Description:
Helix content: 25-40%
Mean pLDDT: 94
Amino acid sequence: MTHAHEILHMMEGNHYASKEALIEAIIARFGTEERFHTCSVEGLDAAGIVDFLEQRGKFMPASSEAFTVDITKVCNH
């Protein structure tokens, strides 16, 4: 199981045109069977962790058509 921080760090310096594009990038890096966790949830698939991170305000616009990670909202524990 991989911590969500790994996804947020993977996003640094990269822009994603859609949530689907981010999900595809996560699957390409971690595989379809990988599950993700945070301090409060566990067992999420790629789509679930993207939804979770979005709900927590971890993304910010990179342009009018893309988004990236808001690195100021990544905890360091």
